């Protein structure tokens, strides 16, 4: 209850309790004077976050004009497409341009698109004031900036009609009470223009009358739009995604291996494939979620897909963006699934790679130095002069709960993605997770140890080729000694060792992680155009399925004592944490093109039980 | 039969029209190359078709790339006996379909230059010097310097230093960034002295990168890492000295990159050098000392 309303109640109690009338009541006996009461203006929302609007609960009213981790109402940005009305094409069936493709969603019309859409709106209630005198005028007010971010409906059914804030409500809405639905029209894009909060004010002007004090009264409720959060690896996969590259036998093999890994983890995990030549399923979209309080402690959920802010065709006015990312709107957007796009078409060409979502990972939850990150924290490659699209960064920063991101230097990598050097696994440790990080130094020492054991002639990359399957394959086969003798590979690997150390130093400073919580993942690099690329399959670029299964690129290392040296190392390192490694063949499809398993997959994961609204960002 | 020189000029004009590099060889060098190519086509015909196969796939590779450029160098590196097939592609037919994106053109050209240089065949020096002198795009210029540097010859070192002195702006920085593969004392000294007088951050970063390559500890351990083994101590000392000096005098990203480069070089004298500059910033030096092995 607001301070203003508290005064109202006190006034009413005093008025009637002390029987100090200000009007006369003719009862036939001696006239009794009744003091005019203060009008009981009451606008309510789900301030106590129990999933319903309680008209009588005090904690639904207390502090309703403020918002923090203990109380405050929440609403969704209603940017899904519950009725599947958005087709991604114009009336003639032509694909919508990139700029307008996101413009169709449940919030871009002024109707409620059925019961599913109704469920995505937040309820406010104007509590009935049956004694409101004739001539009383009530309005619902919104501050100018948030007013463009939300829409109000009168009613509580799909037939509810939009409220024009310029017009007063009907008197009956006050005397009988009315349900108002609030629809968020967008997520927060930039804190500089909108912080995500909306103050809805019920303003009531009471005319001169016998029983109520005349004047203008207000009651304000503050709501916050649900932020879009991204998943970390501690949440198990529910739906996996991968590209099905048409007429590509390697893609068929890859998908088969991924399916096998998924089945090993859980029969409930499904694999959704997208028929596209863009095989980098990790890169052209990112999964996320928005949640708000539901009934009985449950969370209401809206799944979210971000389209990557990649410029692919800068001179194409209609379709400048990475084409494969359109799938966010043409296929994924739907019931309780939103699509989000944010791009600056003027962002630098040479840092476009950083806008791919292989360069956007979420560190699992942690606490460090008194600062808590219970929903995890974004990590990306970004330094001055080599940074992702700043409009997209501003948008993710505006979600607040997983930001500011940890930024490390990936400029030394050809691709420049954070997933080339780091990954995370759930672990039964106080922290709850471990970091996996590339270590070229370890790869070199492992190979040198085998040379010392007399295994220098042992072949590696057996059966693998560096070319494609169109008649000009060149064997990749080499030996341990030959690999160690390659000047340019050792040069790049020495650099990688130091650069990863630098990344790790930042990571340790930001998270407090210790060496005991870090698994080193050995592979060597090579030099391409003065930058670095995994020469051996980059096994840290893995697909984490759940708390016991990971899909990892087959390293095709030397067979020592009947076992692949690098497979054994990783299996042994992960076994204490209960993980089974499922090896995936990705040499041809991904490794040869500067990627691995993680680059070729994506996932919608289980919603965390941690509720963002109970967190202080 | 037309002379190769004429062919080179004609093809170079076509190449220029398509945005490729215009490689000009002296007549004697052109004749020598023609002879080598002819011999290679007899001894290793598959190498030529393999290089052309990669070229034919550039549209696909570019479309499928993850990141800035398609990794062409590893594919070309895998083709055995392809030295003259690569040289032919650079000099005579380095262009791609002009309709292909710039990223494809750059990936192809840089792949050719790096792969040719990586074969460390001194007979290709004239080709790579000509490519260095003809290159304009920063990425191509860097790769030409990188490729030429890998030869490690006196001629390569001289050509690189000359190019660095002649170029200006972004082109100069590109030469700086690539020439560190030339692990010769004269180049190390040049880079070190240039770094001491350079104030432009972009050039400083390019020089730091190059010094990290020229003194790269792991690279120098390999058989082909140092063309003149006796120069190795001088190389590493020059690199370490210049990098420690810059580390002590810089801040921000330049200092960070210098710090990384010092660790990559990991010269024997690093700790002594750091101790000498410790007074300027003891905490930073101590932190770096902790990372040295």
List strands and helices in order, with pairings.
The complex is a heterodimer of chains A (about 625) and B (about 290).
Chain A: H1 3-17, E1 23-25, E2 32-34, E3 43-45, E4 73-75, H2 114-118, E5 122-126, E6 137-142, H3 144-147, E7 150-154, E8 161-162, H4 171-175, E9 178-184, E10 197-206, E11 215-225, E12 229-230, E13 237-244, H5 249-265, E14 270-275, E15 285-293, E16 299-307, H6 327-332, E17 337-340, E18 361-363, E19 366-368, E20 371-373, E21 377-381, H7 390-398, E22 406-408, E23 422-426, E24 433-438, H8 440-452, E25 459-460, E26 478-479, H9 480-484, H10 487-511, E27 518-521, E28 525-528, E29 531-534, E30 543-544, E31 549-553, E32 559-560, E33 563-564, H11 565-574, E34 580-584, E35 601-605
Parallel strand pairs in A: 4-11, 13-14, 16-17, 21-22, 24-27, 31-34
Antiparallel strand pairs in A: 1-2, 3-5, 5-9, 6-10, 7-8, 7-9, 10-11, 12-15, 13-35, 15-16, 18-21, 19-20, 23-24, 25-26, 28-29, 30-31, 32-33
Chain B: H1 4-17, H2 27-43, H3 45-56, H4 58-64, H5 73-77, H6 83-91, H7 102-118, H8 125-134, H9 138-151, H10 154-166, H11 169-178, H12 185-197, H13 201-214, H14 217-221, H15 232-249, H16 252-265, H17 270-277, H18 282-291
Helix pairs in contact in B: 2-3, 2-6, 3-6, 4-7, 6-7, 7-9, 8-9, 8-10, 9-11, 10-11, 11-13, 12-13, 12-15, 13-15, 13-16, 15-16, 15-17
Describe it.
The complex is a heterodimer of chains A (617) and B (293). Chain A is α+β, with helices and mostly antiparallel strands and 617 residues long. Helices cover 18% and strands 26% of the residues of chain A. Chain A is built from eleven helices and 35 strands. Chain A has a five-stranded antiparallel β-sheet with strand order 3-5-9-7-8. A four-stranded mixed β-sheet of chain A has the order 4-11-10-6. In chain A, strands 12-15-16-17 form a four-stranded mixed β-sheet. The radius of gyration of chain A is 30 Å and the shape is elongated. Residues 1-25 of chain A have low confidence and may be disordered. Chain B folds into two domains: 1-151, no CATH class; 183-293. By secondary structure, chain B is mainly α. Mean pLDDT of chain B is 91; it is low at 1-19. Chains A and B meet through helix 10 and strand 28 of A and helix 3, helix 4, helix 5, helix 7 and helix 9 of B.
């Amino acid at each position: 209850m607001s301070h203003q309303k508290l005064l109202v109640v006190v006034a009413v109690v005093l008025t009637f309790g002390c029987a100090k009338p200000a009007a006369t009541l003719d009862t036939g006996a001696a006239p009794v004077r009744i003091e005019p009461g203060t009008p009981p203006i009451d606008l309510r929302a789900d301030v106590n976050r129990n999933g319903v609007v309680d008209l009588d609960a005090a904690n639904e009213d207390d502090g309703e004009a403020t918002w923090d981790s203990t109380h405050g109402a929440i609403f969704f940005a209603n940017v899904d497409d519950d009725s599947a009305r958005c087709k991604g094409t114009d009336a003639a069936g032509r694909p919508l341009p990139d700029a307008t493709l996101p413009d169709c969603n449940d919030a871009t019309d002024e109707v409620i698109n059925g019961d599913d859409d109704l469920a995505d709106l937040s309820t406010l209630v104007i509590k009935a004031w049956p004694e409101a005198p004739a001539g009383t005028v009530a309005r619902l007010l919104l501050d100018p900036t948030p007013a463009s971010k939300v829409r109000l409906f009168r009613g509580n059914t799909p037939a509810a009609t939009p409220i024009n804030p310029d017009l007063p409500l009907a008197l009956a809405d006050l005397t009988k009470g009315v349900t108002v639905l609030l629809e968020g029209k967008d997520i927060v894009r930039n804190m500089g223009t909108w912080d995500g909060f909306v103050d809805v004010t019920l303003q009531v002007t009471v005319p001169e009358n016998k029983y109520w004090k005349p004047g203008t009264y207000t009651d304000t409720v503050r709501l916050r739009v649900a932020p879009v959060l991204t998943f970390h690896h501690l949440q198990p996969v529910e739906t996996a995604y991968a590209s099905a590259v048409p007429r590509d036998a390697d893609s068929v093999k890859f998908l088969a291996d991924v399916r096998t890994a998924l089945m090993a983890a859980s029969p409930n995990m499904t694999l959704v494939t997208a028929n596209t030549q863009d095989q980098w399923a990790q890169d052209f979209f990112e999964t996320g979620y928005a949640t708000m309080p539901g009934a009985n402690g449950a969370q209401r959920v809206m799944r979210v897909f971000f389209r990557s802010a990649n410029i692919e065709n800068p001179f194409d006015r209609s379709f400048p963006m990475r084409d494969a990312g359109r799938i966010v709107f043409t296929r994924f957007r739907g019931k309780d699934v939103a699509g989000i796009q944010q791009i600056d078409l003027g962002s630098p060409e040479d840092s476009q790679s950083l806008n791919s979502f292989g360069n956007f990972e979420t560190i699992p939850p942690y606490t460090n130095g008194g600062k808590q990150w219970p929903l995890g924290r974004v990590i990306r490659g970004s330094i001055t002069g080599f940074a992702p699209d700043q409009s997209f960064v501003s948008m993710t920063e505006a979600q607040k709960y997983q930001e500011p991101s940890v930024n490390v230097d990936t400029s030394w990598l050809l691709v420049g993605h954070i997933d080339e050097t780091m990954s995370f696994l759930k672990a039964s440790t106080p922290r709850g997770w471990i970091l996996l990080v590339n270590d070229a130094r370890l790869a070199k020492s492992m190979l040198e140890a085998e040379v010392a054991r007399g295994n220098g002639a042992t072949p590696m990359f057996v059966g693998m080729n560096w070319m494609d399957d169109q008649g000009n394959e060149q064997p990749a086969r080499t030996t341990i000694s030959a690999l160690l003798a390659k000047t340019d590979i050792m040069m790049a690997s020495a650099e990688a060792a130091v650069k990863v150390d630098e990344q790790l130093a930042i990571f340790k400073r930001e998270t407090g992680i210790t060496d005991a919580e870090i698994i080193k993942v050995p592979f060597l690099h090579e030099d391409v155009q003065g930058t670095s690329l995994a020469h051996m399959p980059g096994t840290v670029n893995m697909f984490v399925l759940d708390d016991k299964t990971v899909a990892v690129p087959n390293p095709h290392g030397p067979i020592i004592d009947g076992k692949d040296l690098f497979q054994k190392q990783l299996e042994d390192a992960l076994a204490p944490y209960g993980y089974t490694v499922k090896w995936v063949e990705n040499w041809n499809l991904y490794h040869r093109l500067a990627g691995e398993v993680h680059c070729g997959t994506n996932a919608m994961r289980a919603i965390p039980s941690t509720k963002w609204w109970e967190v202080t960002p | 039969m037309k002379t190769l020189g004429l062919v080179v000029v004609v093809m170079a004009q076509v190449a220029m029209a398509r945005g490729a590099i215009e490689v000009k060889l002296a007549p004697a060098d052109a004749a020598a190359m023609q002879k080598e190519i002819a011999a290679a086509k007899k001894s290793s015909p598959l190498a030529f078709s393999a290089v052309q196969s990669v070229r034919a796939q550039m549209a696909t590779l570019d479309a499928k790339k993850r990141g800035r450029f398609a990794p062409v160098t590893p594919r070309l590196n895998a083709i055995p006996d392809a030295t003259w097939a690569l040289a032919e592609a650079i000099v005579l037919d380095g262009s791609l379909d002009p309709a292909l994106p710039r990223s494809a053109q750059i990936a192809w050209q840089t792949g050719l230059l790096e792969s040719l240089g990586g074969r460390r065949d001194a007979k290709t020096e004239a080709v790579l010097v000509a490519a260095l002198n003809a290159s304009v795009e920063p990425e191509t210029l860097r790769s030409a310097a990188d490729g030429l540097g890998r030869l490690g010859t006196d001629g390569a070192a001289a050509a690189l230093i000359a190019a660095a002195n002649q170029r200006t702006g972004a082109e100069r920085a590109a030469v700086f960034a690539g020439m560190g593969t030339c692990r010769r004392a004269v180049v190390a000294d040049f880079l070190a002295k240039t770094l001491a007088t350079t104030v432009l951050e972009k050039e400083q970063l390019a020089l730091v990168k190059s010094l990290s390559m020229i003194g790269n500890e792991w690279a120098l351990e390999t058989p082909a890492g140092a063309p003149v083994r006796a120069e190795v101590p001088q190389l590493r000392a020059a690199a370490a000295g210049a990098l420690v000096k810059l580390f002590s005098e810089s801040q921000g990203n330049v200092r960070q990159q210098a710090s990384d480069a010092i660790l990559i070089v990991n010269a024997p004298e690093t700790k002594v050098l750091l101790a000498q500059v410790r007074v300027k910033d003891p905490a930073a030096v101590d932190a770096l000392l902790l990372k040295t092995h």
